[in-house]
Amino acid sequence: MVVKTGGMSHAAARLKLAQTAISIQIRDLEREIGVSLFERHSRGVVPTKAGEVLYERYNELERFLERTLEDVRSAAGSPAPRPFVIGLVPSHMRLVGADVLIAAGTKLPATSLKLVEELSFALIAALERKEIDLAFAYDVEGRPGLVREAVIEDELLFVTARANAQDDSPISFADALQEELFFAGERGIVTLVRRMAQRLSLEPRIVSDMQSVPAIRARIAEGGASLLPYGSVADGVSRGIFAIRRIERPVPSRTLYMVSRREERSPLEDEVIGPFLKDVVRHICRASAPYAIIVDPRFDIAGTSS
Q1: 65 three-state secondary structure
Q2: In CATH, 157-251 is 3.40.190.10
Q3: Which residues sit opposite 160 in a β-bridge?
Q4: Which residue range or ranges hold the HTH lysR-type domain (predicted)?
Q5: Taking the model in full, what pTM does it have?
Q6: How far apart are CA 39 and CA 51, in angstroms?
């Protein structure tokens, strides 16, 4: 949870525990395995390389345990109802994850719902492995076994520390690229920015060796800048940590896809799951307003909502 939220205080609030208790658990774990799992910053923590490995392996073990329990119940002749599993990217989990689970209790009383949080490429891989039933993901290329449907167009915003913000007026794409920009790895947003810059014959100043979005958030808080969706920084904006400016000439944006497996019936055709998925899209769009728009009329926010 500390990795997902980017800070011990946020994790403590989510888990309803004292921050001291979480700090002690992490300290004891680091002593037991003999390595440092987090780098501490003034505004939060980010996982070290060792911490990232442990986090990834923990997720693998959790998924393995779930599959094992399902197999055990099945062998005993009393399989538990399989939940419908939806994959969300971290920014959307942070924005609407709790709301979606609460809505599921009302809208899906006879269907168990589970949410999985991963980056887009990991969600697509999990979908292909049949570990999840549906994903809301970005940067999805066409694949033979998958059906992708564009649902939301999401603006990228110029994000800086509030203390360093000069004003809140729009900034041109060219001017944004004059700043030293921090991105995670070589996938997703950084690829989009590089391609846009190349088309416009611009030379961006990009640092893309950060470990994760929480690491980027920490770097921005210390004085850096990035181009990110609203969901990645909404909490920091509301707390006065980050400042955002819209980008123009041109506006960088990316498409959120609803992705499912081709051999299965479209989830939208299900009389229970279909309306719920439309509500999920509306939740995401409303939480990202005014920086996102629905592009598929079937999900139009003017329709029936939760």
Answers
A1: helix
A2: yes
A3: 225, 243
A4: 1-48
A5: 0.69
A6: 9
State how far Cα 286 lies from the chain centre: 16
Beta strands in the chain (DSSP E): 38-41, 44-47, 84-88, 113-117, 134-138, 146-155, 157-161, 171-172, 180-184, 205-210, 225-228, 242-248, 253-261, 292-294
For the chain, residues classed under CATH 1.10.10.10 are 2-55
Residues of the chain within CATH 3.40.190.10 domain(s) are: 81-149+256-299, 157-251
Q: How many residues does the chain have?
A: 306
Please name every residue paired with 172 in a beta bridge, in sequence order, or none if there are none.
248
Q: Which CATH architecture has domain 2-55?
A: Orthogonal Bundle (1.10)
> CA angle, corner 100, sides to 94 and 105, nearest 5?
140
Q: Is 279 helix (H, G, I), strand (E, B) or coil?
A: helix
Per-residue pLDDT tens over the stretch 14-26: 555 666 767 777 8
Residue (of 56, 22, 51) closest to 36 by Cα position: 51
Residue 45 Cα distances to 59, 88, 118, angstroms = 19, 22, 19
Give tens-digit pLDDT for 164-177.
887 889 999 999 99
For 25, 178, 208, 226, 291, the CA distances from 203, given in Å and listed in that order, are 45, 8, 15, 15, 26
* CATH H superfamily, domain 81-149+256-299: Periplasmic binding protein-like II (3.40.190.10)
Neighbours of 33 (CB within 10 A): 11
Tell me how crowded residue 242 is: count the other CB atoms within 10 A of its CB.
24
